[in-house]
Amino acid sequence: MSSHDDLRTIALAEFATAGYSATSLQRIAELAGLSKSSVLYHYSSKEALLEAAIGPAIDRMVEILTPLEGFDFSDEGRTAFLEAFVDFLLEHRLEVHMFINQGPSLVDVPVIDRANALVMRLAEFFSANSASLEEKMRFGIALGGAAYMLCTVQTLDLPVEPRDETRAALLSIMGQLLSPIRIR
Amino acid sequence: MSSHDDLRTIALAEFATAGYSATSLQRIAELAGLSKSSVLYHYSSKEALLEAAIGPAIDRMVEILTPLEGFDFSDEGRTAFLEAFVDFLLEHRLEVHMFINQGPSLVDVPVIDRANALVMRLAEFFSANSASLEEKMRFGIALGGAAYMLCTVQTLDLPVEPRDETRAALLSIMGQLLSPIRIR
DNA sequence: CAGTTTCCTGACCGTTCGGTCAGTTAGCGT
DNA sequence: ACGCTAACTGACCGAACGGTCAGGAAACTG
User: Straight-line distance from CA B91 to C1' D14, in Å?
Assistant: First the structure.
């Protein structure tokens, strides 16, 4: 893989696990086997590296969400969206963990503002119709909980494989949390 | 309130919202209307301030958890524990948010190691008997989700008052997530 | 072959970090 | 009046931070 892509991957992993502020360019350079100057050759600043790390995931989620806005979440398309959402979480768990847990603390960084706006749009989408307090709380728990759980698999002794089983379980849990109509 | 307690409160709020690494002693000093030297007069180091900020909450959770370990979570004491757990989350939401979301990134700090050990004990307690993958995932989502949601109330347009309603809703959601036996 | 571009580097810069220390001020018991 | 202590401060320190810059090595291009 090219140094350029290497750096993006390494930076994403470090930003997500150690935190953006706590991750130095020196650290990323060492993990990539390069000098700090080389990191700044490929990405003009630390912020540019952050943009490269999480920007594509934000764009992808916007792609998924945009055509659905305006439709009711309780429509028949709900299951299909839930599957797309869960697959997105599984594929971009590091990115989601990043802008969920560090978004509020990194305001004024452009790419983070985009991420925070996306989270707001998601919240509005899920609570589009008659959202009670509990339903809003359910959305917050589902989103923050999935982001946390998917990045703490090793700490909690959770196997990430087989992927299919993880996906099925996550679908079940998220469906239960986000379904506006529940069995009492 | 004394400067000593002021500093603890301010530091906790900043650590939880902006992150430990991203919060400077200078910043805390300014919020408290003191000089950085005064902060280090009351607390011998930044780590000591962190210990004062989240240590008591860790001790309190250990107090709640310890007498229950060894008992099955599905016993009749389950509801009582769930209520105590939810009340703990509501009272110490900033502290929980801190060591849930920054715990993995601050290893080798003694008080954080204590927090991480506590999370492990909690996980083992909840999954004491026959925990399937999905049940472990449910625990992770419940814990991380509650920590996230309770600290993102303003972003998600969630009212923190009335407290009773929040508590009841949280009890309902956490009970549904953590109950080992569910309606299929 | 010469010229250009790509990739990479060490030296260096200004700033901020956590932390130390000597010293000042104010209150309080005697 | 005195000394003692708690609260607080500015000056200062070495280290690490993000970032700049001039230049070296290698590969591609005419």
Answer: 41
- The answer to whether B5 CB is within 7 Å of strand D is no
CB distance B127 to B135 below 8 Å: yes
- Grouping H, G, I as helix, E, B as strand and the rest as coil, residue A45 is coil
Under DSSP, the state recorded for B132 is -
Contact A53, A47 (CB under 8 A): no
User: Residues B49-75: pLDDT tens digits?
Assistant: 999 999 999 999 999 999 887 776 666
| Rounded CA Rg of chain A | 18
Identify the H or E element spanning A125: helix A110-126
Task: Give the Cα separation of A8 and A118 in Å (integer).
Answer: 22
Residues in chain B: 184
**What's the CA gap between A27 and A14, in Å, rounded?**
9
Helix (H, G, I), strand (E, B), or coil: what is residue B179?
Answer: coil
Which residues, at least 6 apart from A176, have a Cβ–Cβ distance to it below 8 Å?
A182, B176
Q: Show residues of chain A in contact with B149, CB under 8 Å.
A: 137, 140-141, 144
**pLDDT at A130 > cutoff 90:** no
This prediction's pTM: 0.89
Are B144 and A147 inside 8 Å of each other by CB? yes
How many other C-beta atoms are found inside a 10 Å radius of the C-beta of residue A181?
A: 6
- Token duo for residue B179: 């109950």
Distances in Å between the Cα of B123 and the Cα atoms of A46, A179, B180 are 36, 26, 13
- In single-letter form, the type of residue at position B53 comes to A
3-state secondary structure A51-70: HHHHHHHHHHHHHHHHHHCC
Cα–Cα distance for residue pair A88/A96, rounded to 1 Å: 9
B86-103 pLDDT, tens digit per residue, is 999 999 999 999 989 998
